[in-house]
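Hey, why these numbers?
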Amino acid sequence: MKELIIALGLLFFIEGLFLAIFPSRIKNMLEIIKTTPENKLRLFGTIFLIIGFLLIWYIKQ
C-alpha cells in the first residue's frame, strides 16, 4: 500500500511540474487530444499501460 501511495505522489508531482513549467504547451496538447479520435486515444492508452506495466514488472523482478 505504501508503494501505491508513493506512486500516486510521484504522478501528482510530475503532472504538477509540467503544468507549472509549460502551461501554454499543456493547453495546446489538450486541444490536440480533443480533436483526436477516441479509438486512437484508446490505442495510445493501451500502449502506455503495457509499457508502464512492463517497466514496473522489470524493476520489481
Notes: Residues 2-60 form one domain. The chain has one domain: 2-60.
